Amino acid sequence: xxxxxxxxxxxxxxVWAFAMKQSEGxxxxxxxxxxxxxxxxxxxxxxxxxxxxxxxxxxxxxxxIGAVGAFIVGIAFLGEAxxxxxxxxxxxxxxGLVLMKLSSTA
Length: 106
Description:
One of its GO terms (biological process) is xenobiotic detoxification by transmembrane export across the plasma membrane. By secondary structure, the chain is mostly helical.
């Protein structure tokens, strides 16, 4: 169950990062509200998952899901650049996540 909650926390991180971008420096109300609510939920889920998962594993997976998810959302919805170097970086992050999961005993 902790792994499911951790993945959910990572997905919420993507949502709050996107909403923060849309808030234009917290100058737009609803994207700002979405940012703060999803940020709080993401941290709460991460904290709950850390009750049974190792700190290094949980935090690495959470930030990795957020980083790769934000990368994908940036390309898909914000017109950000997609080039070989950025794709390689995302692949390396995912590889690290897989290795972290495989090395976890929880």
